[in-house]
Specification:
Length: 274
Amino acid sequence: MNQAPFPARLHVLLAREAPYGVVIRRGPTRHTRFIGWNRADDTFEPTQWLRGRVYGRRSDISPDGKYLIYFALNGKWKGEALGSWTAISRSPWMKAIALYAKGNCWHGGGLFLDNRTYWLNDGYGHQVLLQSEAVVRDEEYEPEEDYGGEDLDVYYVRLQRDGWQFKCNADNCKKAIFEKALPQGWILRKLAHADTYYLPGKGCYWDEHQLIRSDQKVFDHPDWEWAELDGRRLVWTTQGRLWACSIISATELGPEKQLYDFNDMQFEPIKAPY
């Protein structure tokens, strides 16, 4: 019996100062697509594909939503980009305006410090292939905390920058707990897993979530792979789809609304408009 294909895996980057975001869609394993999300009217702009992987947890979007920094892998180790690289692009596209060859999967990616300044997660070094006057690397900045040489160096720092409280580690650092306060006394809890043992369809880094009502009743959502507060509404992804609901009161959420289904997409070559 043939196994049903796994739903698209989704990670989302939300701009902090603009109603905009980018969905990083992965699936099959070595196919990744960027989709722009206008959060003001919930319209979507599917853009470029990569025959490779983009590490969403090592990626970031500028506060104004105009630029992306991301870490990618295609495994072509003899190619110009050495098989893996960090790129900066014009959101929501992949085409690099700044490009750093990496050649391995340690570190890579980075964070935006403001709309035009970024930190490059440069452990084990990058090779400069392309630079741009539109964005500037801050070579002095270093995060206060070091979470190892892979996704967590960027991801945990980004979460805390964006208002998540790092509550504690559990299970010998194989699961970290973050919480974010929501309107009306609700709390969104993120259980961030980091383990070489993982469930089918997930990687060694994956998240699940809980909602905690104002009366401390806990609602488990192990199928939410990403979740965040967007203004006064809750948004999340599950089974290759993006959902939203309003927060009505201390004990009541609004009806769930599907914003987009990202599953039915197939690779096609698309050029960036720049």
